[in-house]
Write a structure and sequence with these properties.
Pfam families (chain A): Peptidase_S26
CATH superfamily of chain A: Umud Fragment, subunit A
Distance between the termini of chain B: 70 Å
Number of domains of chain A: 1
Shape of chain B: elongated
Strand content of chain B: 25-35%
Structural class of chain B: alpha+beta
CATH superfamily of the largest domain in chain B: Umud Fragment, subunit A
GO molecular function, one term (chain A): serine-type endopeptidase activity
Largest sheet of chain B: 8 strands, antiparallel
Largest interface: A-B, 35 and 32 residues
Mean pLDDT of chain B: 88
Helix content of chain B: 10-25%
CATH class of the largest domain in chain B: Mainly Beta
CATH architecture of the largest domain in chain B: Ribbon
Mean pLDDT of chain A: 84
Strand content of chain A: 25-35%
CATH topology of the largest domain in chain B: Umud Fragment, subunit A
Number of helices of chain A: 3
Structural class of chain A: alpha+beta
Domain Peptidase S26 (chain A): 6-99
CATH topology of chain A: Umud Fragment, subunit A
Number of strands of chain A: 11
Distance between the termini of chain A: 52 Å
Number of helices of chain B: 3
Number of domains of chain B: 2
Number of strands of chain B: 10
Oligomer: heterodimer
Signal peptide (chain A): 1-20
Low-confidence stretches of chain B: none
Protein name (chain A): Mitochondrial inner membrane protease subunit 2
Order of helices and strands of chain A: HEEEEEEEHEEEHE
Radius of gyration of chain A: 18 Å
Helix content of chain A: 10-25%
Radius of gyration of chain B: 22 Å
């Protein structure tokens, strides 16, 4: 036991700051994650989450480079005990035309906030920024890197603007995946300046 | 020096170096765990909680067990990730818990309950206010914040020693009995 004892804190550190395995529950990211939620309600995808801050040298440095189309994990603003996975749809300064449960028709994403939405076609199946508004980047904990199970694949968001997700050659999700979501985003509608501090 | 080298070098086998590295990294990770999950000591910053805490020079003990708003009550002083500045922390007093009705005063005003609007704190959010009303940016500016941003509760001032004390919850119900 003695020589193995240091492995316990190392493992904890690794899962909190480097890589973490998470289970995706619910239909909000269907068909991207939990592909056949309609038929198999109990099955949940297992994803690998990159917990390292990103730009920073130290894992606890809270710097992060965020792009549209990324899948991120964050603590739900509506329920602090719940971790959520959603897709970044709008960055600070973007103007988003909202959908179903949102009370406002338009929303400009404020400084240090992002607009997150689930991939579900049906707005009632996802609880996202349309319910709780823009989400502070300080709430974001990690970026989903890969799906481990049931179908192993790396996630790639670089083709999000073209409607190609994870570079799928066979166009599993169609040619213009979620085009109507991108149509609702007006990029860099306003130029945001860093607010004054004190 | 030479004597010291001659004594330690034979023990520095690759195995020993590996074990030393693992122990060192393990110790570092254990310290990080305690710092992030149990207790943090931090220097106070900014005038918003004066006179409870000094704008600078006070070391505060922060219980990280209360992060994400676990066990937080009205009147507790919490530390939270600032909603608009990445990597910054703020410390404010909890004025309203989820479901409470609070009067949202005008930003930086000295008045309490005047010229504002009544709002209900949404599910999973808290309404925060600084003790130094005209010098505090708090929920009057940015509205109720998600409890997920809370990363600890300030439980004590540990330095300077003359001012060492537990942080008092100034909004507890008054006990008016004689006993």
């Amino acid at each position: 036991m003695g020589p193995l004892l240091p492995l316990l804190p190392i493992g904890l550190f690794f899962s909190e700051h480097v890589l973490q395995v998470m289970w995706v529950r619910g239909p909000s990211m269907t068909p991207y994650l939990n592909e056949d939620y309609e038929q198999m309600q109990t099955k949940s995808d297992i994803v690998l989450v990159n917990m390292w801050g990103g730009g920073g040298l130290w894992p606890w440095e809270r710097k992060r480079r965020l792009e549209r189309g990324m899948l991120v994990t964050f603590r739900s603003p509506a329920n602090p005990r719940h971790m959520a996975i959603k897709r970044i749809v709008g960055l600070p300064g973007d103007q988003v035309t909202t959908r179903e449960p949102c009370m406002k028709e338009m929303q400009i994403v404020p400084f240090n906030h992002v607009w997150l939405e689930g991939d579900a076609q049906d707005a009632r199946k996802t609880m996202d920024s349309n319910t709780y508004g823009p989400v502070s980047i300080s709430l974001i904990t990690g970026r989903v890197m890969a799906v481990l199970w049931p179908r192993w694949r790396w996630l790639d968001w670089s083709g999000w603007e073209q409607g190609v997700v994870e570079g799928d050659v066979e166009r599993k999700f169609g040619d213009n995946y979620r085009q109507e979501v991108r149509d609702r985003v007006l990029k860099e509608a306003v130029k945001l300046e860093r607010p004054l501090l004190e | 020096m030479e004597h010291l080298l001659r004594r330690t070098l034979p023990h520095l086998t690759p195995g020993a170096i590996a074990r030393l590295t693992v122990n060192g990294v393990g110790l570092f990770c254990a310290c990080t765990f305690v710092w992030e999950h149990l207790i943090t000591v931090q220097l106070s910053e900014g005038p918003s909680m004066y006179p409870t805490f000094n704008p600078r020079g006070d070391y505060l003990m922060i219980s990280r067990v209360h992060k994400h708003g676990k066990g937080i009550q009205v009147g507790d002083v919490v530390r939270f990730y600032h909603p608009t500045f990445l990597g910054m922390n703020g410390a404010k007093r909890v004025i309203g818990m989820p479901g409470d009705f609070v009067c949202r005063d005008l930003a930086f005003s000295r008045d309490v309950g005047k010229g504002g609007e009544m709002i209900q704190v949404p599910e999973g959010h808290v309404y925060l206010g600084g003790d130094n009303l005209p010098w505090s940016r708090d929920s009057r500016n940015y509205g109720p914040i998600p409890m997920g941003l809370i990363n600890g509760k300030i439980i004590a001032r540990v330095w300077p020693p003359s001012k060492m004390e537990w942080t008092r919850n100034t909004m507890e119900l008054a006990d008016l009995s004689d006993a």
